Amino acid sequence: MRGFVDRKSPTGRSLGHLLRLVAVLAFAGTLDGAVLAQQDRWAEPRAAMVRTIQAHAASLPEAASTDGISTAVLEVIGKVPRHEFVPEQVERQAYADAPLPIGYGQTISQPFIVALMAHLIEASPDSTVLEIGTGSGYQAAVLSPLVKTVCTIEIIPELGETAARRLEDLGYDNVHTKIGDGYFGWPECGPFDGILVTAAAGHVPPPLVKQLKPGGRMVIPVGSVFGPQFLVLVEKASGGQITTRQLLPVRFVPLTRESQ
Ligand code: SAH
Fold first, then answer.
1. From the alpha carbon of 140, which atom of ligand 1 is closest?
2. What share of the chain in percent tops pLDDT 70?
3. 224 catalytic per annotation
4. Which of 63, 140, 178, 190 could connect to 152 by a Cys-Cys bridge, CB 3.0–4.6 Å?
5. Which neighbouring-strand residues pair with 231?
6. Distance between CA 217 and CA 206 in Å, rounded?
């Protein structure tokens, strides 16, 4: 009995505690290691994706006339965890330079196009930008560290809500999300230094042109669902004049309308 009491003496208990603490720390160490290994697993595929984007940008047609993708955009692309934005079934392809299905008949855009669009609006740390077509939230996540504020609209509530939660969980806290028809823009969030439309429209929506600041830039795929589509750069000069330029052929899902 005394022995039993002795084993529960303060010294005995602190030894037990110490052993348990060591066990817990060792377990936590294993967990940390597992999390790190998990992150490392994507580091090389992500770096390879950045190299592919650079190579792709170098082979752009003359009309697209960019001197490669800006370093700031490439750095962000090299950090955003694209695997967090795709369904589990396609996670293994997360860093392929290809669009992937995200459900509801929609796709997360090809990384090269995401980088190119982010580059073309020439965003700066004090910019406010609008994205039409939140989808997975990936393009918004890429824009987030490059600008002051991102406003993004998605017409499919389930996609918009999932993306909003994901962006919040991952800490992209300068991204504002909204469910609705992006054709009409988001005047309360603007005016905008840059607008990115990530679904193909039959024409450039006039409300978006209106919400673009003088000196602002919009990139938008224009064309029909089955016919040719072109990525178009719309520029509003400081005096308000609009110029448009077709950059390169692209393939996007269609911009749908609320009444459809
Ligand atoms: N930027 C997205 C790619 C999304 S694909 C990403 O990074 O994952 C295009 C998205 O535009 C789809 O989710 C589609 O539902 C949405 N969309 C289509 N028409 C729309 C509209 N009128 N307003 C807002 N979103 C629209």
1. 7
2. 82
3. no
4. 140
5. 221, 248
6. 14
